[in-house]
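USER: Please consider what follows.
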Amino acid sequence: MAAAIPNDATRAAFRPSFFLYMTLVMTLFIFSGFGLTYWIPMASGSLAPLPPVVHLHGAFFFSWMTLLVVQSILVSTRNVRLHMSLGTFGIALGTGVFLMGLLITIISQGASNANPSPLANSLAYLSITAVVSFGVLFFLAIRNKGTPNIHKRLILFSTINLLPPGINRLYGVTFGVPLPLLATYLTLDALAIAMLIHDWRTNGRIGRASMTGAAFVFVPQLLYPVLVNSAAFASFAYAMGELSGYR
């Protein structure tokens, strides 16, 4: 009976928040999209050989999503002390996600420079804006780690910008579309709008953190038709790819 008391208390204290549900939805997109194109083929032995850096990138990425779920559960169970204890690890892991995302973007663009395709510019734009948006918002989230309401919003918005690879794979495999850009952007928009509505309903206004995060979701979409096929962006993407030394 004595052992059952803490469990009952834990269950009573568990209050799933909006932020936990958002984290679970984002994790679902990532694990289902990459499950179809990475985990299942790996388990069946049909996955094409990949450079070790790709697997390392995946390890950082999946670990980040897992940590977000764990951290959200800890807050929902009011285990704030452990949540804060994992914060230093989270900073290191998030930094690794940013660096690995940048590295993979450079390597992928190097391959595109060597073997151009019609989708190359679109993929480059998605990758570059995702890495930049995540990096800026993650940095702002760390700067505001002492203000939980700002910190958690910036962390979630930073992660929304990492979702396109998983969403693209999920929709692409399901519907047979090489790059379901519109569906991907609409999904990101739905997640960002849900965050804004939650802010409005909870606080009667949309806070600066949410407006900043939403801007990093919406603005790249608005700039997409202007930049993606421009000579300036093509030159920038090509120069980035050249950093890989890929031939």
About this structure: The chain has a mean pLDDT of 91. The chain has one domain: 16-242.
